Amino acid sequence: MADEIVNRVANSGLITIDLEEYYPQGERVLYDLKDNLWQGLALKEKDFRAFIKENDWSKYEGKNVAIHCSVDAIIPSWAYILLSTALNPYANFVTQGSLEDLELALWENAIYKIDPEIYKDSRIVIKGCSNREVPASAYLALSRKLQPLVKSMMFGEACSTVPLYKQKRQG
After folding, report:
1. What is the pLDDT of residues 50-97, one digit of tens each?
2. Strand 160-166 vs strand 64-68: parallel, antiparallel, or unpaired?
3. Phi, then psi, of 95 in degrees rounded to 5
4. Which residues contact 78 (CB under 8 A, 6 or more apart)?
5. The pTM is what?
6. Is the Cα torsion angle 160, 162, 165, 167 positive or negative in sign?
């Protein structure tokens, strides 16, 4: 009788989490406030409010928007908020900062939406290889979220993992 091949990885009870499956969809765009500045120096509230009211914001439908100012200017905090109130009905996601800041915020938001309870008392492997770039901060956010609930956490592939965390035994 031939020896049966047993897939020990499949029978291990490990749950693999592939962050690529949580990749935040949608085009990333940068809105630069420099075009709204008075003499390239400051934002005038009255003019900015008129611009917000008159502009067609539907062109941002389904997009992820970073609000940013590329020049050294006086931008009050309310300006970012006011602009976001115009974008929110159309955009998928809005944040303040660069496109890199937007990418990090999108990943934070994606990790936030993961229900950690489904991994309670599990042995998990956070998959390390993917076709899309996953920022290190996304892996950190996921581990921070799951660590209080899981029995163990590893990084890599099921056949070659790096141990990250193991729950201490009770008693």
Report:
1. 999 999 999 999 999 999 999 999 899 999 999 999 999 999 999 999
2. unpaired
3. -145, 170
4. none
5. 0.83
6. positive
CB atoms within 10 A of CB 144: 10
Distance of alpha carbon 124 from alpha carbon 127, whole angstroms: 9
Cα 74–chain centre separation: 29
CB 76 within 8 A of CB 41: no
- DSSP string across 22-56: GPPPS-EEEEEGGGG-BTTTB--HHHHHHHHHHS-
- Distance of alpha carbon 94 from alpha carbon 148, whole angstroms: 30
Task: Tell me which amino acid residue 42 is.
Answer: A
Distance between CA atoms of residues 38 and 44, nearest Å: 6
The pair of structure tokens assigned to 90 is 């159309």
CB 36 within 8 A of CB 43: yes
Q: Can you say whether the dihedral through the CA atoms of 169, 121, 17, 5 is positive or negative?
A: positive
